[in-house]
Amino acid sequence: MGAASFFTYGFGETAKQAFQAAQEHAEYMHGHGGYTGTIAEKHGFTVIPKSEHKGKQKRKYAGQLLTARDERVDDKWGPAGAINVSGTKEAKNYRARKGLEGKHGDVWLFFGMASC
């Protein structure tokens, strides 16, 4: 089996809720059969500290971590990376697309390698 990189967003009052929402969406879109190459294959996440990505483009930074094979996100069987993107243009666009304007919660970017 191979591995594929993924980038996806989730929304929730906590990172855990956002992760679960992103997983449920991936399972709906890609099925429950396993080896989807999506967040559906992940069993947890690791929050990347704000101090690492402050002032940087979040998705670009996530891509740099994958390219650098950062041990926190490089294992297809390990946790996904998680970056809180609330307050960014990415988050505003995500909220607009999903009809979440005015709702309490945060937008998270989840990324990593997943089995496919």
Summarize this, please?
This protein is of the alpha+beta class and 116 residues long.
Characterise this structure:
The protein has 116 residues and is an alpha+beta fold. The protein is 34% helix and 24% strand. The protein has helices at residues 15-30, 50-53, 58-67, 89-98; strands at 3-12, 45-47, 80-84, 106-115. Strands 1-4-3-2 form a four-stranded mixed beta sheet, with helices on both faces. The longest helix is centred in the first third of the chain and has 16 residues, at 15-30. The N and C termini lie close together (6 Å). The model has no long low-confidence stretch (mean pLDDT 95).
**Share of helix, binned:** 25-40%
Strand order of the largest sheet: 1-4-3-2
Structural class: alpha+beta
Give the count of helical stretches. Answer: 4
Number of domains: 1
Uncertain spans: none
Rounded Rg: 13 Å
Strand content: 15-25%
Element order, helices and strands?
A: EHEHHEHE
Largest sheet: 4 strands, mixed
- The N- and C-terminal alpha carbons lie at a distance of 6 Å
Q: Roughly what is the average pLDDT, rounded to an integer?
A: 95
Number of strands: 4
Shape: globular
Topology:
Layout: E1 3-12, H1 15-30, E2 45-47, H2 50-53, H3 58-67, E3 80-84, H4 89-98, E4 106-115
Name the descriptors.
globular; four-stranded mixed beta sheet; 24% strand; 116 residues; 4 strands; alpha+beta; 4 helices
